[in-house]
Amino acid sequence: MSWKSVLTFSGLGAFAGFLLVVFSYAPFENELFLSAIPAGALIGAVAGKGRKIELRSSPVAFLLGVVVTLTLGLLWGKTGVESRTANALLMLVIATMLLVNPASLVDAVLSPMTYTGGFALILLILKFYGPIQNVENGIHGVVVFSGRALVMTLLSALTRWGFEKFRRIGKDNA
Questions:
Q1: Phi, psi of 82 (to 5 degrees)
Q2: Domain count, the chain
Q3: Which structural domain range is residue 63 located in?
Q4: What gap in Å lies between CA 154 and CA 54, rounded to an integer?
Q5: Is the pTM here over 0.85, yes or no?
Q6: pLDDT digits (tens, 9 = 90+) for 112-139
Q7: CB-based burial of residue 47 (10 Å sphere; 0-12 exposed, 13-18 middle, 19+ buried)?
Q8: Is residue 174 situated within a structural domain?
């Protein structure tokens, strides 16, 4: 069993559940659709258990989505978050994704999807976290931050992949 595959497929499953919620929640206004996020994560984890795919950045992005969103949500609910704290967390995401070399272009492109899956799982948990519900625009702030982190995850992973690809241009033919 490859934990990297499990994390990636779990993130992709949660991402698919998140898309289902986004596109079906407003027309039907049914909270039952929210269960698609953890169900997708569970189905993805089971599906990824048997896979042996070389992935590096997408499992890390899933973990970043979980850890950074949970940290931001807990901080926002307890003490409030200033812009420098949010920017420090964003820099953590960027630095981590620049340090991890994606195995392929597909791995780099999957990274923001798995980040969104981790973010969606934690956002669902934060929905029931009382202190953040008492902060005006608390959940909205977490969503806006995660959107920025999602874009930075994609750009950082693509930048690192491109750097490694172009660094080897002259060395592969020699």
A1: -90, 165
A2: 1
A3: 3-169
A4: 18
A5: yes
A6: 999 999 999 998 888 887 777 777 777 7
A7: middle
A8: no
